[in-house]
Please model this.
Amino acid sequence: MTTREEFMARIRAEMGKTRGLFPATPATRPEYPREEAEAIRAQLAERWPEALERFRREFEKVGGVFHRVPTLTEVPQVVTGIARAREARRLVSWHPSQLGADLGQALAARGLTPLPMPPGEATNPTERARLRQLAASAELGLTGVDLAIAETGTLVLRSGAGRPRSTSLLPAYHIAVFDRTALVESLAQVGVFLELWHADGATEDRGAVISFITGPSRTADIELTLTRGVHGPKEVHVIFVEREIRG
Model:
């Protein structure tokens, strides 16, 4: 049996192997977030292919699955392929106004059962519970993406009307669709958009929750046995659409 002294000595030995904390300073808040966001967009208009390739590499490193299609028309085919390989049929999605297109008919024609979220906010507790149950009963969750961070392979999703966070959190398989306009290169650039979304006078839908999703859900017990999907999707897929979704 390991004694307390031996246990603490092992912890000290492991901690001694670390390099310690890296130096960090607070980032300067952007004074004009809208102008800075527009500058980032202008820069990415030229170098988005490099940002996308970096996003793909980092996203796959954390266990994500990357798909690429020319237009939204091909998205249902990819979604159906994912569903069939996992024997899944029920799919809950953001409302078409938030997703950028109504894919329900095309998905239904391929044998899936699409369950789109309503366009507005659910204010009634009974309705909110019903929508959560709807998302929990679906095997697939289909969402858009507000930002895709190349530096870390992270997806940023805002909750709001027609886009409840349960859509990406409760189904076992999360599928996110985005185009080049969602790409950013770094977490520092994300900070500019966070300021923009919450700036006084901003017209964007602020939403109640902003989720940062870096790969599928992972949980490890005390013996470091890794399990996926305990607290969220066990698989995360992205479908990059080459033509702008809202263009």
Notes: Helices lie at 4-15, 33-61, 75-85, 96-99, 104-109, 125-137, 166-169, 187-197. The chain has a mean pLDDT of 88. The chain has one domain: 32-241. The domain at 32-241 is CATH 3.40.50.10420 (Rossmann fold).
